[in-house]
Amino acid sequence: MHQVIHLEGISLQRKNIIGLVELTLVARRPRLRIVKISCKQCKIYKVTINKTETEFSYYDPAIEITETEHPNNQYSLDQFAVHHRNAVLECDPDAGGGEIVIRIPPELSHIIDEGRRFTVEMEYSLEHPQSGMHFFVPDDPSGQERAHMFTTRHENSSRLWFPCIDSYSEVCTWDLEFKVEENLVAISCGDLVETVQDTGRMKTYHYFVSTPTAAPNIGLAVGPFEIYVDPNMHEVVHFCLPGLMNLLRWTSRFTHEIFEYYEDLLATRFPYSSFKTVYVHEASEEMTSYSSMCILDTNLLHTSAIIDQTYITRRFTALSLAEQFYSCYISMQHTSDAWLSKGISNYLCGLYLKKFFGNNEYRHWIHSELQEVIKFEQQYGGVILDPSLLDKSSTSGTTGIGNLCSNSNNSLQQAPRPSHVSAEGGDGDFYFSLVNPQTISPLYLKIMAKKAHLTIRMLEHRIGSQLLLQVLNKQLSLASIYISQTNESGNRIVSAQPINPNPPGTQSGQTAPGANPTSPMLISTASFTRAIFTVTGKDMTVFMDQWVRQGGHVRFHMSFIFNRKRNTVELELKQECLQQLGVRKYVGPLTVALQELDGTFKHVLQIEGTQAKADIVCHSKSRRQKKKKIPLCTGEEVDMDLSSMDADSPVLWIRLDPEMTLIRAVDTRQPDFQWQYQLRHERDVTAQVEAIGALEAYPNQQSRMALTDLIENEQAFYKVRCEACSCLTKIANLMVSSWTGPPAMLGIFRKLFGSFSCPQIVKQNDFSNLQHYFLLKTIPVAMASLRNVHGICPSEVHKFLIDLFKYNDNSRNRFSDNYYRAALVASLGNTVTPVVSLLQPGSDITAESLSSDTRIIMEEISRCLNLEKMLQCYKFTVTVECLKALRKLQKFGHLPNHVELFKDYACYGQFHDVRLSALDAIVDYTKTDGKLEDVEYLLDIIENDPNPRMRHDLSRLIVHCLSEKSADRRSKTKLPFHNKAIALRIWKKMNYDLAIDARLRCDLVDLYYTLFGTRKPVCLLDESQQHLADEITSRRKSPLTVREDVDFKPEVVEEVGEAELPNIVSAGVLSSKHESMASDNSAELPDALDSSLPTSFEPEMFRTEKEIEIESSEREVKAKFRSDTKSVESKDGEVEAGESSSHKKHSHHSHHHSKAKKKKEKKKKHKHKHKHKHSHEHKKKVKEETLSSASSGSNSPAQT
């Protein structure tokens, strides 16, 4: 197949294009009468086949997911997911679908039957596109910003700007022609063949893509771009908008190094003869890769004075070049194989980062990705990389373009339903379908790319890095040979012999639906597994079934004891919580690393069940008096202070899976001194990060010293030192009553950054030492979270932070201090605590009513905010932090709770990060104190904002804000988001108005799920249903209910007697019988304290006698009525007339208590619940009745 795109009427001001496409096709089966082409939001004027005009029709089931007036419309995501999946699969090009249905004229049927080529031409136009192509037109044409346009992509979405077969498996060669104004430049894929100057001040750019590629990999950018040819590699050309050339030169100076590294690593040349990078405004993502071309956001550009952005920009650039090899050149066979292209490209990018940023940066990045994946799976469910087994739809018998090529699925076998597939509309544990990327949550796709990278690393550890690179090199070499043979034959149509997509004996899902597994241009899970077996001789089928076709991660609980007699470590591993969301069972080898006195020793255990025990023989024995250097895993020998460790044990610390060869969460139980040894002396950054997290549970002097030493250690990795600062803050807050000396980290800061003559004054900025630069930013932010015994920030810290603002001098520093100043503003925001108001209720907050510390904070934030308007810093980082700090002041009652200021900063035209920070404040305000108008304001931006990235980011922001836990105890149904009008608006938008923008549709599905769940929203129920739901919710949301599924029944005291004062017992002499009343951290009260005062708050201790009398009288009347009713209804005579009323009432009381309430009652002691006088004998009988009732579980009152 070959395709031609010719665009003539490209108008930036009118935001439209006029074009023609020409597809050269070959029918792979006779008697084909219908051809289906993918195309959306384009207006088709004319369709011809071999110059013969033919009929066509347009049908897109995604325009209306669920029918509006359908009687079964339940407004539930369970129903929506089914219809959404069916609508997308109906037009899926991999399944032979398409929105444009073209009928082949009868006079041309003989061409189809003979298997000859035929050409389909389509004339079309596109006006004001909603997605797929973005026009940036500034309001002021004479300003610095210039109008330009570029294509955007969310998975396979090229159909949004030209008719095509929008499938990754349909690769072909391309002719691209674009006619633009003579002052504009058109950049696209392939090689620039010629530039023709036309009449009428127009110019035509002609590109040819000789390397076969898929339609989703075709991109375009048109604008007044400036051109910069890479001086080190003339094949690489960079484009930027006017005024950004200096930034472009500095940002792209290292691009040739990435080229050389990848070519040496993969032992092959770059697959394309040229490469182009284009920097544009308002890009939908930071980076989007196309064949031999990459479109990036201008926010990635930076000068030599910017430090922080360098790491981010270099990573995106390295990833864009890696995707040229495994995403554009080697394409996925089916959308279910997307994990391979994403995983391999991220793996190659990681190897580059490992070489140029160091092993510590690489391992810390891997550890952070692992934690992100685990956190997502614990919250939402296991991520399935290859969901081909979930495709339960059968598309046999469909007709369309899928029948033309072997890459289409016409006889997809129905796969058996896996056990983990939901019976509702979603797949697995999710509320959306995983079969097609157009229905998957963007957050899920992001996490899937991270998990795919971790899975490729797992393969690397199993087969070896060199053999894995040989597998990748073989795939690239075969593709290069295939293209050379095709070019030599002169056949520009890339095709292959038709084969059965699911051969006999092959499971459905092993081969992508309808794809051609013999084509070396495509990669799939099955072909990748075969390639590994061919190169290494290792069969990885079981691995693919365990980690690729199934979701979830492993969770280990490890504990151990040392057996002194046998000199062994008795290790116990448990895989608990297997029923927890996202957790799965693991069977296979597992590495355990023991750091002993004589060195590091690794042991491989075989895990076969949920519980495993192993006796590991230690290689060294305990050393009581001897002093000797301890060898580490790196070969280094260090001196250790062994006074803290167990004298009988040679084990210093123990680690599970130190190389992160599994996607796992580990709960290691070892003493605090072993965590401290691990933090001080282990050289692996992941071990240090784990030790920092564990030491948060051990707030003592030894942990304080270990963290302090790590922060001061110049040999430690800078990110680990920064995390240690945050941990030391938490420990200091827990040790606030016993903390001695100055505030935490104050001495460290003055030692590192204080002036020699006066340590209280910070030195002039010098960021040449990058480790010190990041510590300089982190320590003030961490210190701002310190609290004294009153729960407020110490005044010494306040003064320290204000002095940093006062003495900040960047005049002799060659680097910018914008990120440092932003960190100082953030630290001021962290010092804010809830206000203790002295104002009268209803009075306004004025400048005079503010405390002195708050007034100083406000003055500094206002100064920074006003200064930023005159002297803008890079990416407005200071303004972003100022807005966050202002919102904190509002939340804690220091400022009036208004959002007009944030709405001004959220307007279109402000910088993207500034708008996002302002919108974050508005969302937070709306969640707690907002009204319906505020929610509508946010939805207006999601629906109508000109920037597509802002619509997406705001949707994700609302979902994140509503998902996180907060101190607000209000029910979700009480939030302003939970409104009938809002529910109907979101439902209407994601059902009927977003057929073009699939990413935003999935964003709103996530928002709908976060607000209302998978069932019909409560606000849309009938009055009777809503009343019942409110009644259930009120019972479950009772503040005294321990679990949501336990209905709380209040205690009924049915006998009124003389009030009995609570027993006053000293906390130091509590017997074991009353230990449950004391706190775990309680201590003996000082003797000087008045013993007549209560040691703790007792129930009803502050109630007056009159209140007790009134309530007791009411309860007595209710109890009498209840007992009379029960005596009438009783048929068995269980309650005798002569029984004492005291026993009867207490039996009735114990009968109505639930099991959860009994446990709570037992804990709080029955006698403290009643203010009555009972004889000792009576109390004993009541206790016996309660115990017998609880043990027997009988519903009848206990008999005495």
UniProtKB/TrEMBL annotation:
Residues 672-1032 form the Transcription initiation factor TFIID subunit 2 TPR repeats domain. Residues 1143-1181 have a biased composition (Basic residues). Residues 1100-1134 have a biased composition (Basic and acidic residues). The keyword Cell wall biogenesis/degradation does not apply. It is found in: Nucleus. Keywords: Nucleus, Transcription, Transcription regulation. Residues 44-212 form the Aminopeptidase N-like N-terminal domain. Residues 493-518, 1075-1200 are annotated as: Disordered. Residues 552-671 form the Transcription initiation factor TFIID subunit 2 Ig-like domain. Its main location: nucleus. This is Transcription initiation factor TFIID subunit 2. It comes from Orchesella dallaii. The lineage of its organism: Eukaryota, Metazoa, Ecdysozoa, Arthropoda, Hexapoda.
